Amino acid sequence: MPYLCSARDDTKIYKIKTMTTIIDGKLISLQIQEEIAAEVKAIKVNNGKIPHLAAILVGSDGASETYVGAKVKACEKIGFKSTMVRLSESTTEKELLYIVEGLNNDADIDGYIVQLPLPKHINEHNIVQAIAPQKDVDGFHPQNIGRMALNLPTYLPATPYGIIQLFERYKIDTAGKHCVIIGRSHIVGSPMSILMARNNFPGNCTVTMCHSRTANLKEYTLKADILIVALGKPEFITAEMVKDGVVVIDVGITRVISEVTKSGYKLLGDVKYDEVAAKASFITPVPGGVGPMTIASLLMNTLKASRKEIYD
Question: 4-23+170-291 adopts what CATH topology?
Answer without folding.
Answer: Rossmann fold (3.40.50)
